[in-house]
Amino acid sequence: MFKVLENEPRQMGALDRALASLDWPVQAAQRELLAPGERVARVHDSAGFSYISAGTAALRVGQERSELSAGDLVIYPRAHRAEIRARRECNVINAWFLPSGGSAQTLGTFPNTLLVREFSVREPNMAMLIEGMLSGQANASDFNRAGDAVVCSLISTTIVSSAIRLWAELGCAPERWLHQVSDPFIARALDAIHESPGDPWTVQNLAQVATMSRSAFAVRFTTLVGQTPASYLTDVRMETSKTLLIRDGLSIAETAHRLGYESEAGFRRAFRRHTGSAPAAWRGQQRSLLLPAV
Question: Which residues are in the HTH araC/xylS-type domain (predicted)?
Answer without folding.
Answer: 187-285
